[in-house]
Amino acid sequence: MKLPNSYGSVIKLGGKRRKPYAVRISKLVEDDTGKVRRKYTYLAYFSKPEMAYTYLAEYNSGAVVPEHMKYSDSPTFAKMYEKWKKYRKSLKNQISDSTWRNYEIAFNHFIELHDRKFISIRTNDLQQCLNAYNHKSQTTISSMRAVLKAMYQYAKLNEYIDRDLTEGLVYEWTNSTEQIHDRYSDEEIKTLWSKLYQINNVDIILIMIYTGLRPTELLEIQTENVHLDEKYMVGGMKTEAGKDRIIPLNDQIIPLVKNRYDANKKYLINNKFGNHYTYGTYMDGNFNTCMGKFKMKHLPHDGRHTFASLMDSAGANDVCIKLIMGHSMKNDTTKGTYTHKTLEELLTEVNKI
């Protein structure tokens, strides 16, 4: 009988025994380098197999033995990544810092899986994440592929899983010559405003255009980080300069943010059922639908490109643009690494567009 991973097993012991059927569970023991070995513990013995399976089922429904890794204790996708990273960094053949930075970015592309139990993830879950980024370059997809394959090889080697799901995945990307990466024209922006709340989720596109946020950054902004009275939000990811940055709100989009704001919800952006959007579901069910209805050809990040273009055309302060967009200024010798701007200054600049 095939049982789920981490469920335990029933085995028949050799020799002449009055109770030959043993209920056995296991625990993965990890050493300081991240290497894992399996430790077995025998719970009980029975004369008939059905009695042993009944005991195992009852055990999994609530009984606790410290040595057993139950489903509830099995690692999430994020924890598995940390386990693999710890193991990989313990090896003599080291990966460069720049490659690790690419891996961290790739790992964050799977953000909707971070809290999922690793053993519960299916091939389709991974494929949806990859499909959501098929407009990206080969470099991006290659990094995502490398992270996935390494994680699944590590997990299989250490008996967290039985099968490597990466073997059936399809990896697609867009060549740089094919990428659109074009700003929304002034006429297109007017069209978006004219259809606000007539076509679902147009407001999300407008918020990105007027904040410079990446799609994933906007979708991950939590309600507690939205400060409507002070006209700013806190959010961002990907780089050190981009994480947890101040995002000033242009006066034009404050009503849009207010309309989305619900203090009882964890995230600012939710679907019509009140559930949090993941990047994949937003792309497949909303952004692409909007573009189709408007007959526009844009990528999700074009809102961010548009913001940069609008700010530049409006003569906004260069340092403010970089701070708002989360760009690093480490190599900016004219502005200096430690340049700071007040919220009032950021609001003044963002309201120039």
UniProtKB/TrEMBL annotation:
- SUPFAM superfamilies from the entry? DNA breaking-rejoining enzymes
Tell me which UniProt keywords the record has, alphabetically.
DNA integration, DNA recombination, DNA-binding
Q: What does this protein do?
A: Site-specific tyrosine recombinase, which acts by catalyzing the cutting and rejoining of the recombining DNA molecules.
Give the species this sequence originates from.
Lachnospira eligens
Report domain Core-binding (CB) positions. Answer: 75-156
Q: Does the keyword DNA-binding apply?
A: yes
Q: Where is the Tyr recombinase domain?
A: 179-351
Which family is this sequence assigned to? Belongs to the 'phage' integrase family.
Biological process terms in GO annotation: DNA integration; DNA recombination
GO function term, MF aspect, one: DNA binding
Which gene codes for it? xerD_2
Q: Does the keyword GTP-binding apply?
A: no
Instruction: Please give the PANTHER family that the UniProt record associates with this protein.
Output: PROPHAGE INTEGRASE, PROPHAGE INTEGRASE INTS-RELATED
One Pfam annotation reads Phage_integrase
Question: Which InterPro entries has this protein been placed in?
Answer: CB, DNA_brk_join_enz, Integrase-like_cat_sf, Integrase_catalytic, Integrase_recombinase_N, Integrase_SAM-like_N, Phage_Integrase
Please report the name of this protein according to its UniProt entry: Tyrosine recombinase XerD
